[in-house]
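Review form for a predicted model. The reviewer records the input and the model, then writes brief findings.
Reviewer: anonymous (R2)
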Amino acid sequence: MSNTIKIFLVHCALCVIAIFIYFVLDRYSDLYFIGFVLVAVPLVYIGLGYKYVNEEDSTARRAMSYLVISLIGIIVWALCFVDSFNDASYDITDTEKSDYSFLPPEMIWVLYGVYQSFLFAAYIIFNRLELLDVLNKYSISISSITFVINLSPIFFIWLGFTIKKLMKKIRR
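Model under review:
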């Protein structure tokens, strides 16, 4: 099995664990979930970059290892964004499905959130700090923030690979 597929499968496993933590642990689920997503997930991505991105691979193959999670995430994000954009009467409180939407409005971003657990963590943090109104005040869309969050695995996987290269230089 190629290293790119292994990285993708570990990402999917992290998403399942994050969803399990969020929905199963009732009493302190927000705290456990945020801790998992902000501490454990980046450490796992760094480990993935360290273990599965090889210096001997071509630049294109290494780039694919970095980008696989985010490329799929961008595709899912684009589908959700277009779906919410096509719904002319989009309102978060509206639960009826539009003729142009493939999901009810409250479910549009859940699809993306299932793929990127960072989204739920960011939303919980913004909600707890009461920053959602501030974002709306400055016309910063939560969809643009989720797009940027989608790029975070690239950084962590690259960081793991960079640590691997530095450790190799130090050992010489």
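Findings: Helices lie at 3-24, 29-52, 59-86, 108-115, 117-128, 132-137, 142-150, 152-171.
Further findings: The radius of gyration is 18 Å.
Recommendation: see findings above.
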